[in-house]
């Protein structure tokens, strides 16, 4: 087997050979990777650790926090606050931004994360993960505010996730394609296991929570009905369905073999654009999907072009195999049905 290269060497080469990432961004990504490794060890303890079950509190989203949600959030904060590469952080688990304390040097990057996405799956041993997104802090003013985070996803300089499943795998883009790094537990380091990840433009596999069918937009209902009609229907082929209810796991499958992932607006909460969060779920995942040749839409526009107005805002999500995402967007246009704003 050819000698595998470590995440560290890969990032040094991206910095030195390709000049793609500045030193401070390389440092940031290595720190995030080490934090993900630490979270993986906590997750893998399962019932042998004391981190299972609910923390008895709710996060800013009003969702019950698992103990591991809080642990993962603390691991990411503690790992990143002292290195001098960040100005501030934002997390699904924190209402406001976390400004790097004055006792540490302030850096030029902003880090956002969902520290443990899919955490409702922890107690049933289903894959979960950490999602992260990196922006540059605007340099036109001193200090850092929440408003500095409100940048469209197209402004990201790095994005990725770490999936804690049968393997622990870090998936990363810095704008030059998507690479995957598997945790070698014997060495305790991430090693490159796949480069230039590509998503097929067509698929036979859709991913959506079917229990919400009666609440969907007509455009989504039309798309799924046609998939269910199979080879005798307008699509002329049979489809399969997967729904893990862990975005990291569903997106990892799509990056690995194609498919379309949808969590669209529905009329259960018509004033909310969707369930998933724009800044630290849809934007990082959308950039990864695009960098792998897929597409990411909210039904009416490219997700990465959505201009955020709130740190924790939600968005309708349709992403994956390019031709399928474009078909759904076409159905929205044709039915003149725009997802709720
Ligand atoms: P539902 C997990 O709670 C999450 O935020 C995503 O990871 C996942 O795709 C979605 O919610 C699952 O939602 O409504 O099917 O439980």
Automatic annotation (TrEMBL):
Sequence positions that bind Mg(2+) 1: 92, 114, 116
E.C. designation(s): 3.1.3.11
CDD domains: FBPase (cd00354)
Compartment(s): Cytoplasm
InterPro entries: FBPase_C_dom, FBPase_class-1, FBPase_N, FBPtase
Pathway recorded for this protein: Carbohydrate biosynthesis
Annotated Fructose-1-6-bisphosphatase class I N-terminal domain residues: 6-195
Any GO CC annotation of this UniProt entry: cytosol
Keyword Phosphoprotein: no
Gene Ontology molecular function: any one: fructose 1,6-bisphosphate 1-phosphatase activity
Positions of Mg(2+) 2 binding: 114, 117, 281
Residues annotated as domain Fructose-1-6-bisphosphatase class 1 C-terminal: 199-332
Positions with a binding annotation for substrate: 117-120, 209, 275
Catalytic activity annotation: beta-D-fructose 1,6-bisphosphate + H2O = beta-D-fructose 6-phosphate + phosphate
Any matching Pfam family: FBPase_C
Enzyme class name: hydrolase
Keywords: Carbohydrate metabolism, Cytoplasm, Hydrolase, Magnesium, Metal-binding
Cofactor: Mg(2+)
Biological process terms in GO annotation: fructose 1,6-bisphosphate metabolic process; fructose 6-phosphate metabolic process; fructose metabolic process; gluconeogenesis; sucrose biosynthetic process
Cofactor binding comment, as recorded: Binds 2 magnesium ions per subunit.
NCBIfam families (alphabetical): PRK09293.1-1, PRK09293.1-3, PRK09293.1-4
Assembly behavior: Homotetramer.
Family as reported in the entry's similarity comment: Belongs to the FBPase class 1 family.
Protein name listed in UniProt: Fructose-1,6-bisphosphatase class 1
Species in which this protein is naturally found: Lampropedia aestuarii
Gene symbol of the encoding locus: fbp
């Amino acid at each position: 087997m050819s000698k595998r290269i470590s995440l560290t060497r890969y990032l040094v080469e991206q910095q030195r050979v390709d000049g793609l990432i500045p030193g401070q961004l390389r440092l940031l990504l290595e720190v995030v990777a080490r934090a993900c490794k630490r979270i993986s060890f906590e997750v893998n303890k399962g019932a042998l650790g004391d981190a299972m079950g609910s923390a008895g509190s709710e996060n800013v989203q009003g969702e019950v926090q698992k103990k591991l949600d809080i642990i993962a959030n603390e691991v990411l904060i503690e790992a990143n606050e002292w290195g001098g590469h960040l100005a501030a952080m934002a997390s699904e688990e924190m209402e406001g931004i976390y400004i790097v304390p004055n006792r540490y040097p302030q850096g030029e990057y902003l880090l956002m994360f969902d520290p443990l996405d899919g955490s409702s799956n922890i107690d049933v041993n289903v894959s979960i993960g950490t999602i992260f997104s990196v922006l540059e802090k605007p340099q036109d003013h001193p200090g850092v505010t929440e408003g500095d985070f409100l940048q469209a996803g197209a402004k990201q300089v790095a994005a990725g996730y770490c999936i804690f499943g049968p393997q622990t795998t870090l998936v990363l883009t810095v704008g030059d394609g998507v690479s995957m790094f598997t945790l070698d537990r014997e060495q305790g380091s991430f090693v490159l296991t796949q480069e230039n990840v590509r998503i097929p433009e067509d698929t036979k596999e859709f991913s959506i929570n079917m229990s919400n069918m009666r609440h969907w937009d007509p455009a989504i209902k039309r798309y799924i009905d046609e998939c269910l009609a199979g080879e005798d229907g307008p699509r002329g082929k049979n489809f399969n369905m997967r729904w893990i209810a862990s975005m990291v796991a569903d997106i990892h499958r799509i990056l690995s073999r194609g498919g379309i992932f949808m969590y669209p607006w529905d009329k259960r909460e018509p004033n909310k654009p969707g369930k998933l969060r724009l800044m630290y779920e849809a934007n990082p995942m959308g950039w990864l999907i695009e960098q792998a040749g897929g597409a990411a839409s909210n039904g009416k526009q490219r997700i990465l072009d959505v201009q955020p107005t709130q740190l924790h805002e939600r968005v309708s999500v349709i992403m994956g195999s390019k031709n399928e995402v474009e078909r759904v967007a076409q159905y929205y246009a044709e039915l003149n049905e725009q997802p709720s704003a």
